Structure prediction request, 99 residues.
Amino acid sequence: MSRTIKPVSFGKQDDDILEFIETLDIKFGTYVKKLIRQDMQNKNQNDDIKELIKTINILLSSGNIKVAQGTPDTLDVSEKPKVSDAQKSSIMNILNKKK
Prediction:
């Protein structure tokens, strides 16, 4: 396996970063890779959240699901919202996505 090197340069405005790097207990390259992996994971989670929000908006705009007003003790829970099988399936698929 060959190695790929990506140099990083720091200017005067980055002195605070350089000072912080000196306090790390791990090598700079290891730290950068760790940060990149965290960003990759966060992006995947953000994409999942965006997809869930999109699906919720579609369900809300369809009129089949409504946001209840009031407090739990004043809500009438005897009337269940109408949700189609396709909507149920979409919700379950999003909730069951593997990370």
